[in-house]
Amino acid sequence: MEESKSKVSGEKFTERIVLVFDVGTQSSRALLVNNRGEIKAKATEKHDPPYISPETDWAEQKAEFYY
User: Fold this and answer.
1) Tell me, what DSSP letter sits at residue 52?
2) Is the pTM of this model over 0.70?
3) 17-44 core/surface letters (b: 16 or more CB in 10 A; e: else)
4) What pLDDT band is residue 38 in, cutting at 50, 70 and 90?
């Protein structure tokens, strides 16, 4: 956890940061969000190839792609 001082009162507070992942068929996304709901950082990485479609309405990815 990151400790910061308030600019107004000088009191210390703890800012909690959460790492969020969203893995989709076209890309993977990650966000760092603080306890006030502010996005501190974000990143997106496109999948190449995006996905395998062995049948209509199916979307699969090989696990080896992520390693």
Assistant:
1) B
2) no
3) eeeeeeeeeeeeeeeebeeeeeeeeeee
4) very high
